[in-house]
């Protein structure tokens, strides 16, 4: 029994893909949009909303701040995000937020590190020369993605199209060789 040239070509196409899949490292991919931890919570004279994508590894926090009058938000306002496992196994660690102007609104973005899937206490601290304020919340750190399975999941449509193309080419070649022998 001999291998047809179509299956021989398919082996050369599929072999590198299988090797890539087997040796791929875990990819840190964003699996969805941030979700609200809380919205329009009154903290001192501000209303703040915190949205997060709490993946294990690098987690993103977005803190939106509003006030009755935009002039009430001091230019020197700093936002710090403090995180600590709810179990208390690690001390609280603070991360500074970077101020961003997004469509005329004031937002702070902070990248926070979670080392494990578990419940975390989150402290949002607002600091300025006019005074300090803070609030607390709890969030559950989530896995960063499917790891190796991400590659297979996202590669599947391309593999399916490639396999269908190989099958179509094999049928086309068989028809041509069948017509020539008749």
What do you see in this structure?
The chain is α+β, with helices and mostly antiparallel strands. The protein has two domains: 5-27 and 146-181; 35-140, Macroglobulin (MG2) domain (Immunoglobulin-like), CATH 2.60.40. Helices cover 29% and strands 41% of the residues. It has two helices and nine strands, in the order H-E-E-E-E-E-E-E-E-E-H. The chain has helices at residues 5-23, 148-181; strands spanning 35-43, 46-53, 57-66, 78-85, 93-96, 98-102, 105-114, 119-128, 131-140. Strands 1-2-3-7-6 form a five-stranded antiparallel β-sheet, with no helix packed on it. Strands 5-4-8-9 form a four-stranded antiparallel β-sheet, with no helix packed on it. Strand 4 (78-85) and strand 5 (93-96) form a beta hairpin. Helix 1 runs antiparallel to helix 2. The longest helix is centred in the last third of the chain and has 34 residues, at 148-181. The two termini are 23 Å apart. The model is unreliable at 25-30 (pLDDT under 50).
